[in-house]
Specification:
The chain contains 15 helices and ten strands. The protein is an alpha/beta fold. The structure holds S-adenosylmethionine.
């Protein structure tokens, strides 16, 4: 066999071994979060390298500290450090790896062959959100995971977006613990009234936030009226038909000229191998496995079309954040 062919074959074999073993990456990350390694190293900002003796063979004495391995946090590690508000990206990692979610993953091939198969439902007997709602711990972890990712995002959005002017009453559909509303109200005193609208079991455990009323309900049936509607990370998890229904209910709840301000991960027209595109495409498979087989990450054009079908004649997309795109639909 020619040297070049051998090299290519060996490199393909190494690549497939790496792919097969890749589960050790998220599972090690899971262990790092559970062991609270990031906080142990960070120690209030000192980023003190954590030492431990290198692995040694039985019978050998432990190495002395000068030979010890040292670990300190990279920028990625720092996303797992608990901040002043008790948040980090750690809860998002743990949320993804809960038993009920893990049970759905080996069924992805069935959903590929037959898109009417819902892997999470097949594995657990009911859809993810109603399943979380019945389990106190899962419900709590989901809310913590959403807060951990949403609070840093909202800081970027509130610095870069000025569309809340003239809004007195703002409804956050699928607002979870109400963090997004809390931050919007703090930054924009003109927003006097916030309505955090989510499933009854979710709002039942939401914290008291001045100016915010928690309202339990189902966005597929109706949405409370407001001068504007905010919605973050909601449309992605549903099919086109379901998105149209949510958006039509939003349209009905808005006055003429009112805006539906949605923040969603939006796919680029052309894919590349950047971190952003990889995170988006991996998230697409996550949505398909855990929420709806026909739920998906969409392109800007797909969102524009959904908006038109729901009745919104005006649309613009703002790329303020590294991951989410702000989609403004105006009545
Ligand atoms: C991915 S989370 C996003 C939470 C929050 N907007 C954020 O970004 O941090 C989706 C939210 O939609 C809520 N949700 C799911 N089905 C719903 C329904 N039928 N009516 C209202 N809210 C719903 C979930 O409970 C959850 O809080």
């Amino acid at each position: 066999m020619a040297e070049e062919t051998r090299e290519r074959r060996n490199s393909a074999r190494l690549a497939i071994l790496e792919l097969a073993n890749m589960i050790s990456v998220p599972m090690s990350l899971n262990a790092v979060v559970r062991l609270n390694v990031a906080d142990a190293i960070w120690q209030g900002g000192s980023n003190t390298p954590l030492s431990r003796p290198p692995l040694r063979r039985p019978g050998q004495p432990p190495a002395h500290p000068p030979h010890a391995l040292q670990y300190s946090l990279t920028d990625i590690g720092k996303t797992l450090v608990t901040d002043d508000e008790g948040l980090s990206y750690g809860a998002y990692v743990l949320q993804h790896h809960q038993d009920a979610l893990m049970r759905a993953w080996p069924l992805v091939h069935e959903a590929v062959a037959d898109p009417s198969t819902e892997p999470f439902v097949k594995a657990n007997g009911e859809p993810a959100y109603s399943y979380y709602g019945k389990k106190l711990e899962m419900n709590g972890l989901m809310k913590k995971a959403m807060s951990g990712v949403s609070v840093p995002f909202m800081k970027a959005i509130l610095d870069g977006y000025d569309g809340f002017g003239g809004v007195d009453r703002l409804v956050d559909v699928g607002g979870s613990a109400g963090d997004c509303l809390r931050m919007i109200l703090q930054k924009h005193p003109n927003v006097k009234e916030g309505v955090n609208y989510d499933l009854p079991e979710v709002v039942a455990k939401a914290p008291i936030i001045p100016g915010v009323t928690h309202v339990g309900g189902d966005m597929f049936k109706s949405i409370p009226t407001g001068d504007a509607i905010f919605m973050k990370w909601v449309l992605t998890t549903w099919t086109d038909e379901e998105c149209k229904l949510i958006m039509k209910n939003s349209y009905k709840a808005l006055p003429a000229g009112g805006k539906l301000i949605a923040c969603e991960p939006v796919l680029p027209k052309l894919t590349d191998d950047s971190h952003r595109t990889r995170a988006l495409l991996e998230g697409d498979i996550f949505v398909m496995t855990i929420y709806r087989t026909k739920g998906k990450h969409r392109t800007e054009e797909e969102y524009r079309q959904l908006g038109l079908l729901a009745g919104f004649p005006h649309f613009r997309a703002l790329y303020i954040d590294y991951f989410y795109t702000l989609l403004e639909f105006q009545k």
